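User: Could you check the structure of this?
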Amino acid sequence: MKKAFLQLHLAVFLAGFTGILGRLITLNEGLLVWYRLLISSVTMWVLYSLMKRLQRISRMDILRITGVGFIAAIHWVTFYGAIKYANVSVGLVCFSAVGFFTALFEPLILKRRLHKTELLLGLIVMLGIYIIFQFDTQYKTGIIVGILSAMLGSLFPIYNKLLLQRVNVETLMTYELTGGFLVLSGLLPFYLHYFPAPDFFPDWRNLGWLLVLSWICSVWAFRLSASALKKLSAFTVNLTYNLEPVYGIVLAFAVYHENKFLSHWFYAGFGLILLALIVHILLLREKGRKLKAA
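Assistant: Sure, the predicted structure tokens are below.
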């Protein structure tokens, strides 16, 4: 269990760094994700084929995994869209809403009872985001896109947990990113028609950051997260990912000095989100103590 938590927190730190990369990479958010999926999926096919970690899976599982990959791809497009419409800090805070959506969707998908505590903690997070939305009006478009990203981001860890019962991590991630890439490739011409991009090909600077995003913050981080998901609940994983804005915002403050442009309402809303995270950690510790005592 301790190893799973360590893997999860390292994955969360790397996820927080993707917010910084979303601003460093100047490509359109659709192209950014397309290149991310291309580099990551090719890397996984080469790496895991050499390691002989890829399993044979049925056509039905390929279709299921492709569908989950598409959800993940659209989640990333909206995530980076939120950063570009607002800023790194606001985009990352909106991701915290993933806990609320998980509390709603996980019982429906996994057919278990609704936990009132999980829902309450998720609502506290939503209240924090609402405070920012209501008073930092210049970020409204970015917040709306960010909420959509959080809703989509709550779904694929739940489905991954089901798929990991019969498919190993390497096979799941490889087929998932490949499926997301193929579906997004079909949609990209339409996306670029409505959201045109000045450049299609990345320059050397953008290419360097894309490699960091793909190899370190995707291939390695996804493996860590999926491995942790085998031992932890989807809600625990998603709520722990509320640390993503903490890491990302600290980096945004240090790199871009975004603290100079955020109002006290942002900090009030973010404080509520941190409160929900702290309460959840305390509840997990208490639950762990009771299990040991039993």
